[in-house]
Structure prediction request, 202 residues.
Amino acid sequence: MKLYYSPGACSLGIHVLLEEIGKPYDLVQTNLRVPVPDRDLTPINPKSKVPTLVRDDETVLTEFPAIAYWLSTTAPDAKLFPADADGMARTLEALDYVVATIHMTGFGRLFGAMRAKTPEEAEPLKTLGHEIVARGFTRADAMLDGRDWLVGPYTAADSALFYVCMWSGNFGIELPPNVAAHFARMKARPAVQAALTQEGLA
Prediction:
């Protein structure tokens, strides 16, 4: 397998999962600051974004939830998704909330504000982005009340929450207590430490 990634991007969550399952893989760093038509990733993934996973049969898989699910089904011993239907549904529910809401809807606006050409353009993006991220972390905090992980045992959803927690410090966002404790537990996992070291983020 081959993972196309950008250091500290959402691909970090998939990088962690690859370390969790323990199968061989290669890393290819891509520069997301290069215009889309010129990215080395574009011929492989026309969406021109990470994570992009090239599997052993040379087929390409994209989108965080899809890659996470495929990794879980091909490496069941890693238990990245629960085996029962309700546990799987709850994991997908939590994973999608982190990726689609906290990341794309919330942090997406904050990243957009950084690219804005004027303060007037940036300010509403920053304001709404902070509000959405704060609500998202509050919801995640409630999900973690009385437990170590989002859905009972450790799952792929926890890897997704980890990468958005990594971003919080860049925007001065304080993590609520249960989320902060989860972030600390994640950073103590060997798979996370390995991924951070390989991406130069340790």
DSSP finds seven helices and four strands in the chain. The helical segments are 11-21, 64-74, 85-115, 119-143, 156-168, 177-188, 190-198.
